[in-house]
Amino acid sequence: MAPGKTIVITGASDGIGAAAARQLHRSGHRVVVVGRSSHKTRAVADEIGADSYVADFTRLDEVRALAARLDAAYPRIDVLANNAGGVFGDPARTPDGFEKTFQVNHLAPFLLTRLLMDKLLASGASVLQTSSVGARMAGKLDTDDLNLDRNFSPIRAYGTAKLENILFTKELHRRYHAQGLSAAAFHPGNVASSFGTRSESRLMRFIATNRFTRAMLISPEKGAEQLTWLAEGRPGADWESGVYYEKRKPARRTNRQAADAELARRLWDRSEELLG
């Protein structure tokens, strides 16, 4: 593959996002680093000589401002990697009124993608979602209860958000692939990063910080390899649009709801309704 893509990576101030930014920069691509922490985001960008932008996905006005700045700054965007995410604790609402896990992992990247859609279509772009095997383990989506008011737990909220990443990918493909857009979701593996270390969930903090569980996790660099592979790859040749990947292959097992095309359509429509 010839180098030279413009690749926007959210959640790139740490973990697999930062690792993928470094890998793609070494391959000669123009990487755009987006993160929540101004200090950490700038540090990664300065390290590789990349542009950087700061946006807090718990605030949709910052997502809108980010989209406007990206649209103005780049004539084309070849890859949008929706990698930002998080697992949190007790139910908490954002300033926009949505459950935090739902907004950060799904609604904010949905909004960013929709606001950049004209640019992405003109570029024949790939849109990538960092999902998780957690979608299979704990995801259960009810489009009438996207904030999980009726049955909240931190693990279910996270698993459901990762299921939403897969459904968003499938609906992106259905709506826009004929116009040149490609989309994929992927599980990066169980990565030893800061992800989950600040969660209010005792289980997630235990998994993220216990030395025995961390010994079974892979490095952020290893976890980033699948994002890098998708970003550099050619849709239709190296990977297929609309598919959820694990270990560079279409996942053989995932949540049964992930294959529900009508559910994917309802999630899209409800997300648009919530965003006004």
Automatic annotation (TrEMBL):
UniProt KW keywords: Oxidoreductase
Domain of life: Bacteria
SUPFAM superfamilies: NAD(P)-binding Rossmann-fold domains (SSF51735)
One annotated GO molecular function: oxidoreductase activity
Tagged with keyword Oxidoreductase: yes
Pfam families, alphabetized: adh_short
InterPro entries, per database record: NAD(P)-bd_dom_sf, SDR_fam
N-terminal signal peptide: none
Protein's name according to its UniProt entry: Daunorubicin C-13 ketoreductase DnrU
Originating organism: Streptomyces malaysiensis
